[in-house]
Amino acid sequence: MDIGYLGPKGSFTHSAASSYFSSGNLISYDSLMQLIDARMNKQIDYAMVPVENTIEGSVLPTIDGIYQTLPTIQGELILPIAQQLMVHKNNQDRWQEATLICSHPQALAQSQVFIHKNLPQAEVEPMASTTLGAKKVVEHPEEVYAAIGSKMAADEYDLVIVKEGIQTVANNETRFWLLGDEPIATNLIFVEQKATLLIELPMDRPGALYHMLGIFSKADLNLSKIESRPQKTKLGEYFFIMDIEVPSDPAVLQTALERLEKQAFPFNLIGNYPTYRKP
């Protein structure tokens, strides 16, 4: 079984994939679109993708990529995220002189308060993943460069962690979605059952959003998230991504979906899946 993740090894997505699966072949991808495309082309059996963070909100490339490809979500993992500041061992006593900080944009944004306070002179360079930042640091030992990422990344590249837990919010978490064709069991802690919809609103119907939300309100279904994104067709055209808490009686959700269809709201159910949490 092949499982793709946003790499290289040591990234938070790698940690999510290795936490979810006790066995299998983990394969690294350089970008989210490469990872999602590999799953849709069935080059891998599953793909683990980040979708939302406590501090920075939705991972928009994931949301947009999923809208374009319509994969199926088979599970969700909530992973605690602690960002570490790491440098080459030659520079551990000089980390405050760092001229460059490199990491994934999400990690940089999650740590921006620390950076502003402690390393205001450093240039910030976004990378495709946190571990690519660590890789750049280890490749330039003559420079005082720093990376932000996981303890796993520090171990992987033999870097020294000089400051732990530099994220702005202590209780920082990221949601990851597992994309695939079939459900698969895991030993993680079950939290709840969710469903995710992609919905497009008719342009010529005043109050369309109000009427669409009324369907879920009437069914007493709790929406844990609703967010709009541009369809990237023309200005003013949007789709909504919605997470729904699935009740114990699945017929309640099914009835709501039938009402959506009856009232001509175009939608795609891209997953009815279990949510898990890593302690």
Describe the 3D structure:
This protein is an alpha/beta fold and 279 residues long. Helix content is 29%, strand content 34%. It has nine helices and 15 strands. It has helices spanning 12-20, 32-40, 60-69, 105-110, 112-118, 130-139, 151-156, 208-218, 250-262; strands at residues 2-6, 25-29, 46-53, 57-58, 73-80, 84-87, 100-103, 123-126, 145-149, 160-163, 173-180, 189-200, 223-230, 238-245, 267-277. The strands form two sheets. Strands 1, 2, 3, 4, 5, 11, 12, 13, 14 and 15 form a ten-stranded mixed β-sheet that branches. Strands 8-7-9-6-10 form a five-stranded mixed β-sheet. A hairpin with a 7-residue loop joins strand 13 and strand 14. Helix 2 (32-40) packs parallel to helix 3. The longest helix has 13 residues, at 250-262. The model has no long low-confidence stretch (mean pLDDT 90).
How is this fold's topology laid out?
Elements: E1 2-6, H1 12-20, E2 25-29, H2 32-40, E3 46-53, E4 57-58, H3 60-69, E5 73-80, E6 84-87, E7 100-103, H4 105-110, H5 112-118, E8 123-126, H6 130-139, E9 145-149, H7 151-156, E10 160-163, E11 173-180, E12 189-200, H8 208-218, E13 223-230, E14 238-245, H9 250-262, E15 267-277
Parallel strand pairs: 1-2, 1-3, 5-15, 7-8, 7-9
Antiparallel strand pairs: 3-4, 3-11, 5-11, 6-9, 6-10, 12-14, 12-15, 13-14
Helix pairs in contact: 2-3
